[in-house]
Amino acid sequence: MAERARSAGSAGAQMRHGPGRVLVAVYAVLGLSATVRGAYQVLARFDEAPLAYLLSLFAGLVYVAATVALVRSTPASWRVALAAVLVELVGVVAVGTLTVLDAADFPDGTVWGHYGRDYGWVPLVLPLLGLAWLRRTRP
Amino acid sequence: MTPVLAWATGVLALVVTVLAGLATARGRRIDDPLLIGAAVLELGLLVQAVIGFVALAVTDRDVDGVVFSGYLLTSVLVVPLGAFWAVGERSRWGTGVLLVAAATTAILVVRLEQVWRTGG
Question: Is the CB of A22 less than 8 angstroms away from the CB of B101?
């Protein structure tokens, strides 16, 4: 079964099949939760922590972009997915480090805060899995 | 909202998560028992959503309505969307998608109960 997906993968980028199926599901969940939470924070409580909430929303949109790119499964969307995954990796490491060093600027748990602690460290692991998967499905 | 209901749907979501996890580990495709389990879970979530919305409308406690409604709505969407995405993949990975959907639902139910209990 997995073999079938792999042999189909040689004909073109099959990012949405095999393990990619699960990856898309996790990305969709994270994209939805971070985007909705970020949008709510920006709309309802923007003044409390503008930077953190905008970052929350941005992170969510990056996850949504990765989800859509993986589902589309074209050579062009492969590059979009790669860019999105790299932004996530840099984002979670940078924001994670910032929150650990100086928690004052990030009063609320954002998706990348504390290396994604509030989201079960999924934001930290996901870009690594994403990179591994993109390497295997390179068009 | 009653804690009993949240416990029931939460445990149901965990059961589906574990069953889907075992099936994924064994390399099984999605089968009827798993889909029936997902359907029963969804039924429980729909009942919970109806009761939740009614409870929100009549309560005099200070619950963040937007957040609570958001969780209620999301809680009934994840399993059908996950099942749709799962059945399109005839391998263990389709089963893995159902695992993700059920685990997400379990987390949503916990958050739902928290929001109801603490107000936001």
Answer: no
